[in-house]
Design goal:
Keywords: Hydrolase, Protease, Secreted. This protein has 121 residues and is an alpha+beta fold. Helices cover 14% and strands 29% of the residues. The chain has one domain (12-120): Thrombin, subunit H (Beta Barrel), CATH 2.40.10.10.
Length: 121
């Protein structure tokens, strides 16, 4: 799947994950799963995380019951409209909590680094 040099064009993205399915760690997936999650505005995300600085290299997405969880970090976030990876799971508060969207890193900010690291590995 290609890396995206630009921001997601849609209001939702698709998250691919293998981590825990419950916050208490009682259920973990052995099968790659996917879920469509809405993108959350940076202002709304900043309100959810007042002690963190949500910067331009990040975006937030998710809603209650749908989002990333422990061990999903590094997993791809895909804009289905363009078929490209637009982000990677970074961090959040708990698992898919309604008041705490997941925080993701924008891949477009790092395409050059990722490409050079990939080919030089």
């Amino acid at each position: 799947m290609p890396l995206c040099h630009r921001r997601a064009r849609t209001q939702s993205v698709v998250l691919r994950m293998l981590g825990y399915m419950e916050e208490d760690g009682s259920e973990r997936s052995d099968v790659l799963r996917k879920v469509s999650i809405p993108i959350v505005s940076r202002d709304k995300c900043q309100v959810a995380y007042p002690s963190s600085n949500i910067t331009e290299i990040m975006f937030c997405a998710g809603t209650g019951g749908k989002g990333s969880c422990d061990y999903d970090s590094g997993g791809p976030v895909i804009d289905q409209a363009i078929g490209e990876v637009v982000g990677l799971v970074s961090w959040g508060n708990g698992c898919a909590r309604s008041d705490y969207p997941g925080v993701y890193v924008r891949v477009g900010n790092y395409v050059e680094y990722i490409t050079s690291s990939w080919w030089n590995a």
